[in-house]
Amino acid sequence: MTHPRTPLERVRRARLRLAAAMIGAAALWGTAAGALLLALCHLAGRTGVVGGRVVAVAPIAAAAVALAVCALLLWRGRAAWSVPRVALWIEERAPELRYALVTATDPTLPPTDADSPLARAAGAAGIEGIVSRVAWRAAGRATVGCVAAVAAAMLLSPAVGLPGVGALFTSGPAAAADAPLANRLERITADVVPPAYTRLPPQRLDDPSNIHALIGSSVVVHGQGPADGVTMIHGADTVAAAAGDGRWALRLTMPLSPAALRLRDRQYERLVTIEPRTDSAPTLTLRLPSADTTYRTPPTGRLALEAAAVDDIGLAHGYFDFLLTSGEEESFDTKTVEGVRVTFGGARGATMRATIDLDTMKLGPGSVLHIRAVAVDANDVTGPGRGFSETRTLRVASTQEYDTVSVTAADPRPIDTLYMSQRVLNMRTDTLVDRKRSIETAEFEKLSRQYGVKQQEIRARVDRVVAILEDDGVGGRSRTAQSEMLREAAGLMWEAYSLLAVDEPEEALPSMRRALALLDEARTAQRYHMRGLLRPNIVNIERVRMQGEDSAAATTREARQRLFDARLLLARRLDAAVRLAAAAPAAAADSLLVLRLSALQAARGAAPVLQLAAEALRAGTDAAPHLLRARRLLAPATRAVTGAAEWGGGSGGPGGTP
Amino acid sequence: MSRFVFATAEYASGDWESAPLVPENLIDSVARYTTLDVTPAGVNVKLSSDDLFDYPFVWMTGHLPVRLTDVERRNVKRYVERGGFLMVDDHNHDVNGAFHKTAVEEIERTFGRMTRLPDDHELYSTFFVFDDGPPNTQHELNGYGDDMLHRYLDAVLVNDRIGLLYSNKDYSSEWNFHADSKRFATQDITKFGVNLIVYALTR
């Protein structure tokens, strides 16, 4: 090898070699750091310590770390770019130079010739050997570290790593002894795919405690980690998890009734409840015909039909259904006819219209035609669901119906008396307005206000009728076409009252007339029965009392179990779960989830509150407000009453028609 | 003490009054065989009326198809669930007749499928004992209607108690005669009616 002629040239060459070694080592160490981070992330992913999202971003983090480490090392080695610093560095390793090299390369002094005594003294040490040894040592160390880190990252990578290496980190005696696998049930997801007929999109639930989905939905519960050892207990069945892509998966189909799923991973357990949702049958409103009708003579011509159908998922088709009866008593014919089917193509709401030709029905005296609308949904899992509208009845009076006086007048119905009262009030108000000029002002005002009070009374009666019509029999209210008309009439009556109260009956009259028209329309929308009433025969009780020749041989009556409010049992179970919450909140949360399933039937309103309480206990937050609310909701609504209620009461009965 | 009042159901769609003599006949039988305090005449009560809840026993019959209104359906459901006893009898004794098909459809829409009563059900021994289950009617035995014997009665049970009893044996025809005619009969064919009323009042 040819040595540079001057010491400065030699130091400059050494500087270049040192810088190259420094750059190379920095790059290798940076790579090693990034690879090490990647290896750690893969290890954590395989053992379930971190989720898939963290593993997915690990390469980016590793690259960032590699660049940072490289930059740090380059900054630390910046002295390699300075000639005096390099000369000094060489002097430290070759003390025999006695600063001859530093002096020979001092930039403040004149350049030293290659054959000067100073140059000869500076060349006494093997500069190139020193630099070469250091450079190779640094590069060697960096290379070894980099190779080891990269090898570890590759071995642990899910894409590249060896399966056997992964198995070292799964559950098993050796693995448990060396590195225990974390709880694979800690964080789960549930993918729900509704039945195909619904055309609803799939749904992903993150860490659910309850899965609420349509019956027949496909449910897949996922978690991180290998599948071996993860099971699900559903009723009497135990299902093993399937493996895939570093995760375990448990599959089920949403059943007909709610259930609790117990997920197990070795000593770990987790409860998830499944709550099936039923696809409701369509609901229909028959708009035309709007009321039952009795004809004195057989009707002819065309009759328009209209019905509105609504479904929670989607309607398949609908039709009008006709039931025609001809004849009377035990001699009659019945014919059932389905109208033309209308396809709805999965729409959630639709209107059906049709026209029937009454001439083709061949209606005669005594005929009865029942009309209703039917809609079918597309449920091919538990259905199809079939919904029916209210039935409208068209009757043709029989020949003797109008030839007899046996029709007994019924009591006037509330809505009829409302109509009559409003009509009388309207007439009086009309008269008052006509007499305005001829009566005293004080008298006019007094009468106007009296009529206002009367209007309020009528309005209160309308409200009572509305409450009766809208009572769905289970504590709720359900508006009907008739009740909507009455509500509108009540609003108009309020307007009229407010004008009558300020002595403006003329302004009030339009509202009063519109209210009367609505009452008239409402009362004819209600079904009524035109047949005569039975004349009861009176039995001479005293004459026949105990005159029968046969005697009883009845079996002994056994006492029935006292009926109880199911909520009492639920409340007791809630109390037990509350007592458990302090010592074992996870167990208490599970108890609440199971209790929630029972509450779905007996106390539905408490079910979501119980779920909130369970989730709060799981999350370690304050569950007390939810538990208190659940306790109030589970308080029994019924109370035991000793003794049977009195039946019947009085001669002729309290409410029936004698 | 309260009196038992025999109530006949009045519904909008059919001929609810097709068996007008059944009330007097059963009232007569209850008075003949029991000491129950009973009102001498029956009443009619609308299925759509809240008055329905004043009567523990309600009799419903007809020939024509049955189509309950929404109000009637709600009332009947509440009535049965709250302990009432509704007896529904097909006056045609036809298996696939208009009343049978439509009444069963309405009942199943309201309550779900009915339960078939076994021959040893307590209904058949609440007062008189019928070892073979529901007694057959003369109309069945004489081949009227569908010429079949309908072996069983079906029921809607609420807490194991009959809330609605359905029959297509045509007891309406069987019991639709003047009570005074009983003295000419060798057997009183209305005794099963006594069982129905005693069951409704005591079970």
* Rg for CA atoms of chain A: 46 Å
Q: Quote the average pLDDT of chain B.
A: 90
Biggest interface, chains and residue tallies: A-B, 60 and 70 residues
Percentage of residues in DSSP E strands of chain A: 15-25%
Could you describe the largest sheet of chain A, including whether it forms a barrel?
7 strands, mixed
Helix count from the secondary structure assignment of chain B = 6
Structural class of chain B: alpha/beta
Question: What is the molecular shape of chain B?
Answer: globular
Rounded to the nearest angstrom, the radius of gyration of chain B is: 16 Å
Question: SSE layout and pairings?
Answer:
The complex is a heterodimer of chains A (658) and B (203).
Chain A: H1 7-46, H2 52-76, H3 83-93, H4 100-104, H5 117-122, H6 127-156, H7 163-167, H8 173-178, E1 188-193, E2 203-206, E3 210-214, E4 218-224, E5 230-234, E6 237-240, E7 242-244, E8 247-253, E9 259-265, E10 268-277, E11 283-288, E12 293-295, E13 302-310, E14 315-328, E15 331-338, E16 342-343, E17 349-357, H9 358-361, E18 368-377, E19 386-388, E20 392-396, H10 414-434, H11 441-470, H12 481-500, H13 505-524, H14 541-544, H15 566-581, H16 585-602, H17 607-619, H18 624-633
Parallel strand pairs in A: 3-10, 12-20
Antiparallel strand pairs in A: 1-2, 1-4, 4-8, 5-6, 5-9, 7-8, 9-10, 11-13, 13-17, 14-15, 14-16, 14-18, 18-19, 18-20
Helix pairs in contact in A: 1-2, 1-6, 10-11, 10-13, 11-12, 12-13, 15-16, 16-17, 17-18
Chain B: E1 7-10, H1 22-33, E2 43-46, E3 57-62, H2 70-81, E4 85-90, H3 98-111, E5 115-116, H4 138-141, E6 154-158, E7 161-167, H5 171-174, H6 191-202
Parallel strand pairs in B: 1-2, 1-3, 3-4, 4-7
Antiparallel strand pairs in B: 5-6, 6-7
Describe, in plain words, how this protein is organized in 3D.
- The complex is a heterodimer of chains A (658) and B (203).
- Chain A is an alpha+beta fold and 658 residues long.
- Chain A is built from 18 helices and 20 strands.
- In chain A, strands 12, 14, 15, 16, 18, 19 and 20 form a 7-stranded mixed sheet that branches. Chain A has a 5-stranded antiparallel sheet with strand order 2-1-4-8-7, with no helix packed on it. Chain A has a 5-stranded mixed sheet with strand order 3-10-9-5-6, with helices on one face.
- In chain A, a hairpin with a 2-residue loop joins strand 7 and strand 8 (247-253).
- In chain A, helix 10 runs antiparallel to helix 11 and helix 16 packs antiparallel against helix 17 (607-619).
- The N and C termini of chain A lie far apart (135 Å).
- The model of chain A is unreliable at 170-177, 403-409, 527-533 and 646-658 (pLDDT under 50).
- In chain B, helix 1 (22-33) packs across helix 6.
- The model of chain B has no long low-confidence stretch (mean pLDDT 90).
- Chain B has helices at residues 22-33, 70-81, 98-111, 138-141, 171-174, 191-202, and strands at 7-10, 43-46, 57-62, 85-90, 115-116, 154-158, 161-167.
- By secondary structure, chain B is an alpha/beta fold.
- In chain B, helix 1 links the parallel strand 1 and strand 2 (43-46).
- Chains A and B meet through strand 14 and strand 18 of A and strand 1, helix 1, strand 2, helix 2 and helix 3 of B.
